[in-house]
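Appendix B, record 7
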Amino acid sequence: MLILRPARFSDLPAIEHLAVSAGNQLTTLPNNRDHLAELINSTQQSLGKHVSQPSQQSYHFVLEDTDSAEILGISGIEASVGASSPFYSFRCDALEHQSPELQIKNTIATLTLCRDYEGSSRLCTFFLASSALPGYALQLLSLARLMFIGQHPQRFNQRLILELQGVVDDNRESPFWQALGQHFFNMDFKRANYLTGINNKGFIADLMPRHPVYVPLLSTGAQTAMGQVRPDMLAVESLLKSVGFSQQGYISIFDGGPTLEANTNQISAIKQQFSCALVIGSASAQTSLQRFLVTNNRLQDFCCISTKLDPNNPVLTESQAKQLNLTAGDTLYLLALNTPI
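Structure tokens (predicted):
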């Protein structure tokens, strides 16, 4: 059975393995043991705190196969970006140049370094170890954390964002970084990504150009990459857009990948989850079952599974209830999945 739960200190070796597999392509998942240990520590500390408003808390969850005890993925939430250091993005703007004498007017696309998203909550650190896993594994790893946000709204801001990884070439180099960032730092994209992950984004962003960058001066490859997501993240982008996220003209300062945003009040995975009392019984033999995400509505012991249920009479098996640390009559939350995955 696949289950999503908060990261524990015993998961550190497995999370290190995920970081190696990610190949330093995730800024928030660098191959650095101290950073990954702090990632787990922050999760445990945040879950143990009474929180009335979001600040420097962060929460990371792992996807575990309970049959093999293997950790297959990781995903996280940052409660408030910019709480401890600046959070930068490029805003896609335009400047108008005109000459009344020549009767010429040109509108030029620009990139403006900004901190518009500071204070937002952020989805981060999404990594699934294998594309061969069942489709619902992606839903479980990504959407269960939205259910967590909906069940503990005081811990998060209403504005929720995420940065999707931008395109890279066959050498895992970013055309956007090569055209812009590397000229300011004299290092390759992988090194910049790693340093940012262990030192915070402000470490590099402080050196980015403070004046608008004229997009036509960038290479064709860089311009094409702007706002485009890496091919292996297309399924994640599609899933999040299907629940209410959209692109509003912001991109990553490193690889030019798109930033998606949504208001938590408008995210279907938050709005449409519902609670009920747990009923334990035998697995239904019906053929018209629907897939659900099911959580136990806890904080420190939060966990979520994916299973097929009768939407009119949701019943969990004894084994499923045990995985969720629930007994008959306890409150659980369900989210119906509309996709056929």
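Remarks on this record: The longest helix spans residues 135-151. The first strand starts at residue 2 and ends at 6.
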